[in-house]
Amino acid sequence: MNIYVEANPYLHDKYSKYADEKYKREGNPFVSFPIHFDDIPSGAKTLALTFIDHDAIPVCGFSWIHWTAANIPAYIGELPEHASEERQDLMIQGQNSFASPLAGSNDPKVIHQYCGPTPPDKDHAYTLTVYALDAELNLQPGFYLNELYQEMKEHILAETSIELLARV
Predict the structure, then answer these.
(1) What is the tens place of the pLDDT at every residue in 82-108?
(2) Fewest Cβ atoms nearer than 10 Å: which of 32, 44, 64, 101?
(3) What is the distance between the alpha carbons of residues 132 and 130, in angstroms, rounded to a whole number?
(4) Domain count along the chain
């Protein structure tokens, strides 16, 4: 399985810290980047994804979750730009770290959708992982990352990750 995201070498400004203000909510970028998929294993029914900043550990003490999504149809080939908000019919989305006490948001459009990179201290590498699954997962909107991992057990046919850079 392969995933492709345009980055040269950084994620485009529109999806990260330097997004135009019209693409920000509570100061954070909300337009999700397009993701292309190919070589999805036969037998895959859905895809799930995580977009996590492990470089945040020295800053806040834990890996920062920017986006989680599940039940993406395995046949789609691409999750289009801004799908997190404009194509919610393609997925169910989980809670990100902007709901934590460090960020303190309670706006569902911030905490239950893509909320892009805003590295505070240096360039960060963000890990996008996509999972091919043999089932639709039993999750509710706003699920937690641990619930996603628990539901995926026994259903992962393939997984792949890429690192995407965002500039300070």
Answers:
(1) 999 999 999 999 999 999 888 889 999
(2) 101
(3) 7
(4) 1
Measure the CA angle with vertex 48, ends 57 and 77; round to 5°. Answer: 125
Q: Looking at 98-112, 117-131, 134-148, which range is the least confident one?
A: 98-112
Full domain range(s) for residue 19: 2-166
Query: Which CATH number goes with the domain that contains 125?
Result: 3.90.280.10
